[in-house]
Write a structure and sequence with these properties.
By secondary structure, the protein is of the alpha/beta class. It contains 22 helices and 19 strands. Helix 5 packs antiparallel against helix 9, helix 8 packs across helix 9 and helix 16 crosses helix 18. It is elongated and about 100 Å long.
């Protein structure tokens, strides 16, 4: 231990603020020559992470503590961080100087508040409960003794002498029944891992004892861990409770929900054997202020494959069919839980600093593959501040085709919408508009189909499964002898195609027209821009039922195929319903390759650019919510 005389001790000024650009630790003693101090400072890993506290301002009162005292650390109402970072100076110091008080600091004005129960219990277990004094104002201490941290977060394994001191304290723990396999569940404290309750049911079906530590006193928790031959923890704060123990006779299995071997340094020296089982599948993470993924906070989907070997190791006497049945039930539960658990998690976290980038969240969701496209649209509504997707209804006759102006320019707004909806990540403004429109009895068809923005708002509602399915009958056009005559239809047709592609079973249109082989040839040779030919082809293929129904990822893939018509087709074309269509589109593009590369490349680049969400551009029928709906 090192002694510091006449030293100022500051209350907590900042703690764990690194997530938001602040310091990890700014509290406690203002050591002289702070930067050159060694183990007296607060360490993580192999280096100190604290910054020197600010001295009191001019005229600010300073308390005085005469005599000697020991430095303990900071009070923080977080089970894992307190036990991992702020108790490991106690035993060496308190046993060396049993007559001295132990100083802890908290935030200004909180010194009179009662200590959280787990902190009181930790002090009692370590034998220092009557010696702790809490400071919440700047205090000058006559002599402060500071012991180094015997363990620090992410640091080296603890010394054998320290573990021996902790093991001595285990004798005072209560007596509890012994057992074989104990599953320490996180199901009662949150859904950081989707399906914690299902995982709990899986281990119960195999015969494990289920233990929720937050429902039991800390001393009983510690005694229960010592009384079981096999401990199974989901990675989380409860594991840090084991740092109050010096020797654990059983084996420990950590179900990891992040990459790496969580707790290897502090757990391995304490247990008979340590196993890590990686259960982390795909994840949705928050975003730090600098845009990087906040890997410390997120929703992780379970990968059940490693559980096969784990169940065989922990329950070797169980028949194989019983273990297989428990795993199948777990997988069924996880599939049913994925959507509601995700939506509940997003509702609980939306608006928080790490969860404001809705687009990043939705892109993460798409990459997980765990939610269907309509469910990802529902997640978009939740992140936009809605508890449910607003239901919009469409009514009224379609506008006369001749009344719509032609489209000479690229349909930038339409392609932006197409890409966003296909990815399940529409601009949040579309949900705001959909919510504003949901109070109207019904939307006029002519009004919607003249505006990309209104079409997008209705499409969000339609794709999320809100409201009733829609079927529209189109006025019969003239026979398509000259495809160029279809140009005036383009603003209407491009939106109908978008709605039909994305709406799948929820949107249909009917048209009293089928193209003959002669008509298809005429369409292929028509002097139209490539995008217009493609839209017309989509329009008729959808009408004839020749485009595969289902998720929109497929037709987004077909659109991207237009950029590179020579792309290698799938290895088994007969199993891919898009192959024939892709080949047809590729043949059209080949006949007009320079224009195709220029236009489609530019449009798709725009679709992928954040500016596309503004829906600005010269596309036909482009309108704003104010001009199109009159609602502003």
């Amino acid at each position: 231990m090192q002694a510091y005389t006449d030293i100022l001790v500051a209350p907590v000024q900042a703690l764990f603020a690194a997530f938001h650009g602040g310091p990890v630790h700014q509290a406690g003693p203002l050591y002289p020559d702070f930067a050159r101090q060694g183990r007296a400072r607060h360490w993580r890993g192999t280096a100190p992470v604290d910054v020197c506290p600010q001295p009191p301002g001019e005229g600010e009162p300073i308390d005085r503590l005469d005599g000697e005292a020991l430095w303990g650390g900071c009070l923080v109402n977080h089970f894992g961080h307190f036990l991992a970072e702020f108790v490991h100076r106690l035993l060496p110091a308190a046993q060396a100087r049993p007559e001295l008080p132990i100083l802890y600091v908290t935030r200004p004005g909180q010194g009179g508040e009662p200590l959280p129960g787990f902190i009181r219990a930790a002090f009692e277990h370590l034998g220092v409960a009557g010696r702790v004094r809490v400071l919440d104002r700047p205090t000058r201490v006559a002599t402060l003794w500071v012991a180094p941290q015997a363990e620090c977060l992410g640091g080296l394994p603890p010394a054998a002498d320290y573990l021996a001191r902790l093991a001595e304290r285990q004798a005072a723990l209560p007596s509890v029944p012994a057992g074989e396999v104990l599953f320490v569940s996180r199901a009662g404290v949150g859904e950081g891992l989707v399906g914690e309750a299902a995982l709990e049911a899986f281990f119960a079906a195999l015969g494990a004892r289920i233990y929720r530590p937050e429902q039991h006193p800390l001393a009983e928790q510690l005694a229960t861990y010592l009384a079981h031959a096999q401990l199974v923890f989901t990675e989380g704060s409860a594991l840090h409770g084991l740092q109050l123990l010096g020797r654990i006779p059983g084996e420990l299995t950590v179900l990891a929900r992040r990459p790496g071997r969580f707790g290897q340094a502090f757990l391995a020296p304490r247990v008979a054997a340590l196993h890590h089982v990686p259960l982390a599948g795909p994840a949705v993470h928050g975003r730090a202020p600098d845009g990087r993924k906040a890997n410390w906070e997120g929703l992780v989907y379970l990968d059940t494959a490693p559980l096969v070997e784990l169940a065989a190791r922990l329950f070797p006497a169980l028949p194989d069919d019983r273990r297989a049945q428990a795993l199948a039930q777990l997988q069924d539960r996880l599939a049913a839980l994925a959507a509601p658990a995700t939506l509940d998690y997003l509702r609980a976290h939306r608006g928080q600093p790490l969860w404001r980038d809705a687009g990043a969240m939705l892109r993460d969701l798409a990459r997980t593959g765990r939610l269907a496209w309509p469910q990802r649209l529902q997640a978009g509504a939740v992140l936009a501040g809605l508890d449910a997707a607003p239901a919009l209804r469409l009514t009224g006759p379609l506008p006369p085709l001749a009344a719509l102006r032609s489209a000479e320019e690229a349909p930038t707004g339409w392609l932006a919408l197409l890409g966003q909806v296909a990815d399940g990540a529409p601009d949040p403004g579309l949900w705001t508009l959909a919510q504003a429109l949901s109070g109207r009895p019904a939307l006029d068809a002519a009004e919607v189909l003249r505006s990309d923005v209104l079409t997008g708002a209705w499409l969000c509602s339609l794709g999320a499964g809100a409201g009733e399915p829609v079927r529209l009958a189109l006025p019969r056009p003239e026979p398509l002898q000259d495809p160029a005559a279809a140009v005036p239809w383009m603003p209407l047709i491009q939106r109908l195609v978008l709605l039909r592609l994305a709406g799948a079973g929820r949107f249909r249109y009917s048209l009293k027209l089928r193209l003959s082989a002669r008509d298809w040839q005429a369409l292929r040779r028509a002097p139209l821009p490539v995008w217009q030919r493609c839209v017309l082809a989509w329009f008729h293929l959808l009408h004839e039922g020749r485009w595969p129904a289902g998720s929109p990822e497929g037709w987004a893939q077909a659109l991207r195929t237009l950029v590179d018509p020579t792309a290698t087709p799938p290895a088994t074309p007969s199993e891919d319903p898009l192959v024939q269509l892709q080949h047809r589109l590729a043949a059209w593009v080949q006949s007009d390759r320079p224009e195709a590369e220029e236009r489609l490349g530019r449009w798709l680049a725009r679709r992928a650019h954040p500016a596309a969400s503004s829906f600005s551009g010269g596309g036909a029928g482009q309108g704003s919510p104010a001009s199109a709906s009159g609602t502003g």
